[in-house]
Write a structure and sequence with these properties.
heterotrimer; A alpha/beta (491); B alpha+beta (103); C alpha+beta (477); A: 491 residues; alpha/beta; Amidase signature (AS) enzymes; eleven-stranded mixed beta sheet; 15 helices; B: 103 residues; alpha+beta; Histone, subunit A; two-stranded antiparallel sheet; 3 strands; binds magnesium ion; binds zinc ion
Chain lengths: 491, 103, 477
């Protein structure tokens, strides 16, 4: 078995027992990346020198007998919208192509602090706006299970990297499904934590009231391990939650008996792929078999949630993206006066989807439209939160699909933004409510593509999600876990 | 519900957002945004009388920090990404013609 | 037709915190460009604001001092607009839920007092500073940006439109200035931009209840220029209305050199700031006990101080107002008054020579000890030194804080009043100025003053005036 095939938990054990060195681990993943990434294009930049340096340091410290964090020496890939000191942070946008941050995000500092080698920065939809990673200004990323398909988005690079064993762990960000939808498209485990649980300091803002940094991993145990490192109150993010530290124990022993599970009716829609909904139903029956109480529930505002989301997120984005004006950093066009410079810089620097959302958001916030669009959306958000609160009085966990379909073809939805938006329909309402939500493999579609289901819990109940996902991983009677990659033979 | 026609708004909104759009781009975008807003504005069907808007999902008051100084960035760091600079300032084209006149 | 001028003011002042509103960068003034900046105040991608506790304390203190109703629940909003001095392309401000609502401030008019009501007080963040290459914003080919100022906490105070002349606006600002100085919330230096004032001004037929179309006046750099600019703008509007024209709503800049207002640009688009709740900052919730505690800690305010001065020292209103421009001057007077009981003479010295010397030297009151100042006045009263010598000593005291008694002793500056000392000088002056002597003898009384001046000049101002007059008249008989 190659080193790159291991989970993070297993790598951690191998490193701790000194069966392998961090340098060996890093080398294994970098070689894998060198082999596969020209085909998959999951990385915007690779950072081999930095990874080796960190690995060497970890090895030295371990030789000296220092106490190390379980993740010391375990490599990680980072979505390119998380600020990294002296490493480009482009958000896959032309407007930030040359931007080098002078500071580290809080989550990056945490990773560095324990000695996690960085493999590189992963591709994404520009400014995290998209569901396919085709909105990257640089290149699209391919789905490792089928190169003609998208990996999902916006954290498509991170999901593809983990799925193809180019990284054991990756950081992503989720605003309205950007971790869970690509995780389901690539057959990996994606966790969006409770809003406020992980610091947003250094995460380039898309929609501030929705954005969360989360994990993309192969297993729930890996996810728990990485979450325990990045969760916790951050004095630099005043929307971070006091007491939000996450205790990692390798005991995620599932606790299925008497688990109250709500099966979301709207995620069993006839508009969804039949096999996707069947896989969710099958998961429900497995839970029942092991003693859970499963009951169908309704989230009646699911469709309205999409509308509310596509007003709230662009509104906040239109404001968050105002700063890209060519003055302090980034792409800049000379103009005959300041307004000319602003407009041309932004007109040329942003891609079409980003411009669309800036336009929607600017419009929804503008005088005369605010009440009908933005304010109404915020009220709908309250209604959605209320629905969830009511459901969590009776249920521990909600189960649904992570996406209506498996991965679609590259180019299939690029001309129809509305169709693209609909692919996030399962992920949006829990984002609006700030809830923790996790996507995990539910089965393999007859097309050979992975399918995902989604688990959602009440705030701060990530442990419930991870335990349940762990249960599914253990009870899984389907295979393979990994895509078969032709060109990896003999690699 | 009235169909949304973004064509008449597109110029005003693009100006407000400081986005230069090519004519063809503008045309295409106006069509797409009409469709998107048409779908989004279905939320107006919902009765939200008496419902408070949710701006934040955290039901907490704002966190405060003590009034203490922390090191700033070095000047090199401040200017390292600036496309145009002069004498440690950041340089911008002439201000006139800009629509804003506050402060 | 007779018109009534209606003015409303919007005052922005920088709060006296050590660090900026959302980050730990220093608020110090006058450092090299872009040296007080970090990812937060530069608005770098991914940075987030964390609110400064002290800014809230100062803002609530100011609101309490202005009798504004502090809101237990308030909120922060983003005001979106593009300008190169605004790093995030939005200003964090407060829109429909400000920190405090209402309030008032009394101003002393010539023969009466009037309460000027306030609309609201809120917190917001300062923008950076633009330096224009060329004479002004209009002619500049390009501009330079310094973000040191960006993110300093600002308090915005908005008055109701109930000031009725440029003079009243000035009186209001002077009173506001002293209240803010008494509570130490801001250093209020208009010349450094830590206090700025914009005005809305309109005219209406006298007695009409509705407001006319207003214009906005900006760029006024002193209280005097606020008064002048508003008087100018009122006249401009009046002449348009009188000629049957109508006022266009636009923004004017005050030109300090040319003493006139000029339109910056007509508002071709009405501003659409797209305010919405700032998602990065949760709502501000103040404990009522916290507000009560700050209310208890509120220092004596200028008006109260004035009443005390009027009552205790029999000063005129104008004098009391002057002494309460800032807390230090009033305190100075009171401390000096402990050892000097001729309050009339004391206030005359304070508002005359003392303020003159401070202005001339550009010094503040810190150096000079009020007890030594009283001692100086006692020496004059006791005939130990002459007034001209006292003035010279005062000039030195303002600079160095020196003890006047010591200076008189060490430098032999005491009054010359003996006949033996004065007579030789008088004789010399009479010999040297035959014309003046003739004039005096022909009955021109002014010539005597001239000759006294000459003697004073020779003695370095030390001649005892009474004795000199007597001896000179005697000699000229
Ligand atoms: Mg303001
Ligand atoms: Zn700063």
């Amino acid at each position: 078995m190659e080193l790159f095939e291991n989970t993070a938990v297993e790598l951690s054990r191998l490193l701790r027992t000194k069966e392998v060195s961090a340098v060996d681990v890093v080398r294994s993943f970098l070689e894998r990346i060198e082999l596969l990434d020209p085909h998959l294009k999951a990385f915007i930049i690779r950072t081999p020198d930095m990874a080796f340096n960190t690995a060497k340091e970890v090895d030295n410290r371990r030789i000296r007998g220092e106490e190390m964090h379980p993740l010391a020496g375990v490599p990680v890939a980072i979505k390119d919208n998380i600020s990294t000191l002296d490493l480009p942070t482009t958000c896959a946008s032309r407007i930030l192509e040359n931007y080098i941050p002078p500071y580290d995000a809080t989550v990056i500092a945490a990773l560095k602090n324990v000695g996690m080698p960085f493999l590189g920065k992963t591709n994404m939809d520009e400014f995290a706006m998209g569901s396919s990673t085709e909105n990257s200004a640089f290149f699209p990323t391919c789905n490792p299970w089928d190169l003609s398909r998208v990996p999902g988005g916006s954290s498509g690079g991170s999901a593809a990297a983990v799925s193809a064993a180019m990284a054991p762990l990756a950081l992503g960000s989720d605003t309205g499904g950007s971790i869970r939808q690509p995780a389901s498209f690539c057959g990996v485990t994606g966790l969006r934590p409770t809003y406020g649980r992980v610091s947003r300091y250094g995460l380039v803002a898309f929609a501030s009231s929705l954005d969360q940094v989360g994990t993309i991993t192969l297993t729930a145990l890996d996810s728990a391990l990485l979450l325990s490192l990045i969760a916790g109150y951050d004095p630099l993010d005043s929307t971070s939650l006091p007491g939000s530290e996450f205790d990692y124990t390798d005991d995620l022993e599932p606790d299925i008996k008497n688990l109250r599970v709500g099966l979301i009716k709207q995620h069993l829609s006839a508009d969804f792929d039949q096999e996707v909904t069947d896989a969710v139903l099958k998961a429900a029956s497995i839970l029942e078999e092991y003693g859970a109480e499963v009951q169908e529930v309704s989230l009646p505002l699911t469709d309205y949630g999409l509308g509310a989301y596509y007003l709230i997120a662009p509104s906040e984005a239109s404001s968050n993206l105002g700063r890209y004006d060519g003055v302090r950093y980034g792409y800049a066009v000379n103009g005959e006066n300041i307004e000319d410079m602003f407009s041309r810089t932004r007109g040329e620097g942003f891609g079409p989807e980003v411009k669309r959302r800036i336009m929607i958001g600017t419009y929804a916030l503008s005088a005369g439209y605010y009440d009908a669009y933005y304010l109404q959306a915020m009220k709908v958000r309250t209604l959605i939160r209320n629905d969830y609160k009511a459901l969590f009085n009776d249920f521990d966990i909600l189960l649904g699909a992570a996406s209506p379909t498996p991965a679609f073809k590259i180019g299939e939805k690029t001309d129809d933004p509305l169709q693209m938006y609909l692919s996030d329909i399962c992920n949006i309402t829990d984002s609006l409510a700030g809830l923790p939500s996790l996507a995990v493999l539910s089965g393999i579609h007859s097309s050979g593509l992975p399918m995902g289901m989604q688990l959602t819990a009440s705030p701060m109940q990530e442990i419930m999600l991870l335990k349940t996902a762990n249960f599914f991983e253990k009870s899984r009677d389907f295979s393979p876990l990994r895509p078969v990659l032709e060109f990896s033979e003999g690699g | 519900m009235m169909p949304v026609n973004f064509h008449k708004e597109v110029d005003y909104v693009a100006r407000l957002a400081r986005l230069t759009l090519e004519p063809a781009e503008k045309e295409r975008m106006a069509g797409q945004l009409s469709d998107i807003l048409q779908t989004a504005c279905r939320i107006q069907e919902l009765d939200t009388t008496g419902i408070e808007p949710t701006s934040h999902v955290l039901d907490l008051p704002v966190a405060l920090r003590d009034d203490v100084n922390r090191p700033s960035l070095s000047l090199d760091r401040v200017l390292q990404n600036a496309p145009r600079q002069e004498k440690n300032y950041i340089r911008v084209p002439r201000i006139t013609g800009s629509g804003h006149n506050d402060q | 037709m007779k018109y009534e001028v209606v003015i409303g003011l919007e005052i922005h002042l920088e709060l006296l915190t050590r660090s900026k509103l959302f980050c730990g960068c220093s608020t110090a003034f006058g450092l090299g460009p872009n040296t007080n900046c970090c990812p937060v105040c530069l608005g770098l991608p991914g940075s987030l604001p964390v609110f400064n506790r002290k800014a809230i304390e100062l803002a609530v203190t100011a609101a309490l001092a202005l009798k504004s109703e502090v809101q237990i629940n308030s909120r922060f909003d983003r005001k979106n607009y593009f300008y190169p001095d605004l790093p995030k392309a939005y200003q964090v401000s407060q829109y429909d839920q400000p920190l405090a609502r209402g309030g008032c401030l009394e101003i002393e008019l010539d023969k009466s007092r009037r309460k000027v009501s306030l609309e609201r007080i809120h917190l917001e963040e300062e923008a950076g500073k633009l330096v224009h290459a060329g004479e002004s914003i209009i002619g500049a080919n390009y501009s330079l940006v310094d973000y040191n100022r960006a993110g300093i906490p600002l308090l915005e105070i908005v008055t109701a439109p109930n000031l009725y002349s440029g003079h009243e606006a000035r009186l209001f600002l002077e009173e506001l200035h002293s209240v803010l100085l008494y509570c130490s919330v801001s250093d209020c230096k208009m010349e450094e931009g830590s206090l700025r004032c914009d005005a809305n001004i309109s005219l209406r037929p006298a007695g009409s209840p509705t407001l006319g179309t207003r214009t906005e006046v900006k760029n006024m750099n002193s209280f005097r220029s606020v008064e002048m600019a508003l008087e100018f703008e009122a006249k401009r509007q009046e002449s348009i209305l009188t000629a049957g024209g109508s006022i266009i709503q636009e923004t004017f800049h005050w030109d300090e050199e040319k003493k006139h207002t000029f339109p910056l640009r007509s508002k071709e688009e009405s501003s659409d700031y797209r305010y919405f709740p700032e998602p990065d900052l949760l709502p501000l919730v103040l404990e009522s006990s916290y507000v009560e505690k700050l209310a208890e800690r509120l220092p004596m305010l200028p008006q109260e101080h004035r009443l005390k001065l009027l009552d205790q020292y029999q000063l005129k209103v104008k004098e009391a107002v002057l002494l309460t421009r800032n807390r230090e001057l009033g305190d100075f007077f009171e401390t000096a008054a402990v050892s000097y009981s001729d309050y009339r003479n004391l206030i005359n010295w304070v508002q005359g020579d003392l303020l003159y010397q401070l202005r001339e030297s550009g010094r503040d009151l810190k150096k000079i000890d009020p007890r030594l100042f009283a001692e100086l006045l006692i020496m004059v009263d006791d005939g130990k030194i002459s007034r001209p010598v006292a003035k010279e000593l005062l000039a030195e005291m303002v600079q160095t804080g020196a003890d006047p008694g010591e200076m008189v002793e060490n430098r032999h500056l005491g009054l010359i009043s003996s006949r033996e000392s004065l007579m030789p000088v008088i004789e010399q002056v009479i010999l040297g100025n035959p014309d003046a002597v003739d004039n005096y003898r022909q009955g021109k009384k002014k010539a005597l003053a001239f000759l006294v001046g000459k003697v004073m000049a020779v003695t370095g101002g030390r001649a005892d005036p009474a004795e000199l007059n007597r001896l000179l008249k005697e000699k000229l008989k």
